[in-house]
Structure of Probable enoyl-CoA hydratase, mitochondrial:
Amino acid sequence: MANIGKIFASRACSLAKVATANNVRFYCAPATSFEFIKTELVGEKKNVALITLNRPKALNALCNGALITLNRPKALNALCNGLMNEVGQALDQFEKDDTIGAIVITGSEKAFAAGADIKEMQGNTYAKCINTNFLENWTRVAKSQKPVIAAVNGYALGGGCEFAMMCDIIYAGDKAKFGQPEIALGTIPGAGGSQRTARAMGKSKAMEMCLTGNMINAEEAERSGLVSKVFPADKVVGEAVKLGEKISTFSPLIVRLCKEAVNTAYETTLNEGLKFERRHFHATFSTKDRQEGMTAFVEKRAPKFTNE
C-alpha cells in the first residue's frame, strides 16, 4: 500500500458539493490506494477528515491476506481485519495533521456497517483468539485523540454498532437501524457492545438489545441516549461535517482536554471524575489559548487560537 502521507501530498482536487441544512460546501478529494475505505478532506477549510467505509461487494474478497467467499451479493460494509487496519492507518495520519480538527466516519446509505465478517472469524478457536488478541486492533477509533463523529445510515449491527459507539458522537439518518445480534450466532458482542450499550442506554435496554438481538430504529436510539441527533438520510453526513467544522474552530489543545474529561466521566466514579475535571480545568490556565479565549471574549472579538 502506498504511504498515505504521499497520497495526501499528491492529491488531485476535484470540486464536489456536500449539501447541508444551511449551505453548500466544497471539498478536495485525494486519490487513495485503500481497498476498503475512502478518505477525503471536507468542509470549507478542508479541516475535517471524512472516512467512508467502502466494502459494498465482497464476493471472493481478499481481506487481510485471506480469500473469503460470502453468500451475500452485497456485504453491506461487513467489517474485516483489512478494513479495520485501513481505518487505523487513516486515523494515524489524520492525528498527525494539525490542520484537521475533527474526523467523520460514515458508510453507505444502506449500511454504516452491517456487522463483522462472519466468514472471516468462523474458523477461529479460543486459543487463536487469545494468542492473537483477536479484535484488539478494532478499537483504534476509540483511542483517537481527535473528536470522531459517526454519521450512520442504514444498518449498524454487531461490530457496526460497536464501531459507531467507539466514536465520540453519533449522528443518525432517519432510516438507521442499530442492534447487537451476536446472540443468534451463538456468541456475544466482542468489541464493546455489551459494555457501551449499558453505559449509553442503561442496563435494561442493553440487556434487551443483547439478549434478543432485536434492532432499534434511529428515533428509539436517540430517545435511549445512544444517538445524539437524527437527520434525513441524505443530510446526516453533511450535518456531521458541519459539527466537525464547528469543533475545528476551537483550540485543538483544549478540545483534547475536554474530550479526556468527558471520557473519564464515562469510565470512572463521579468523585474521581470531578477531581480529573477540576485539574484539567486548572491546567487550561497555563495555556495561551485559554488566555486568548477569555481576552477575546472581554474584547468582544473572535479568538485566534494557536494550539498552545
User: Anything to note?
Assistant: DSSP finds twelve helices and 14 strands in the chain. The longest helix spans residues 81-96. Confidence is low (pLDDT under 50) at residues 1-31, 58-73.
